[in-house]
Amino acid sequence: MAEDNAYESMLCVKPEVHVYRIPPRATNRGYRAADWKLDEPAWSGRMKITAKGKIAYIKLEDKNTGELFAQAPVDQYPGSIVEAVTDSSRYFVIRIEDGNGRHAFIGLGFADRGDSFDFNVALQDHFKWVKQEGELAKMEATQSAAPKLDLSFKEGQTIKISIGNIKKKEAGGAKPRPMGGGLLPPPPGVKAGGIIPPPGGQQTDPAAPTNTAALLDFGSPVPAAQPSSDMWGDFTSAGSNSSKDAVASGWVQFS
Description:
Elements: E1 8-20, E2 43-52, E3 55-61, E4 68-74, E5 82-84, E6 91-97, E7 103-109, H1 113-145, H2 212-215, H3 235-249
Antiparallel strand pairs: 1-2, 1-7, 2-3, 3-4, 5-6, 6-7
């Protein structure tokens, strides 16, 4: 019933094939096309290969009217339904059925080797698919029969996740950031506002006075020039006086 309701698909169509009457097989070595009357085919027409479920059907039809001449249901390939001859790749022997339980063997030939190759490949691909479907069905049946693995949490169950390479923070927390102004904190061991002592244990003597006058001695102050009644001034006297003053004050005179 499942096969009757299955979809019928087209596998191969060849517009011209030939049918031959074949003599009974004399030995178990197989059929030979050379024993047939290849130049006198018994029938010529169109061939179709269809598939319905797991069964493939080789149908021989009239090329003009489409009337069915013979049909060969194939349930296995290679097998006894379709058999290649021993002396050629273009001829086969197929077993046809009339639907009433009677069957007969006829010779089937192709004019071109490419057509015979397509005929062979179409049957091979179909039964390869049938084999894969059967293996998948067995696998599904095995998986359904096996007890299912329950990975759900039971009541009261817990899990513990351990994540490595994570260091704990110290108890003191993060170091305090320096206050505003852009100043860095003093080095360790020095109080805020203090002075870093010199190396070697030497300390400065705050009681020793610093002779700031010696450092800032630039000479005696130059007396201010007396105002003159002359608008232009006395260049001669001014020049001589300035020279003496410069020598007395200790400044270097450039000539």
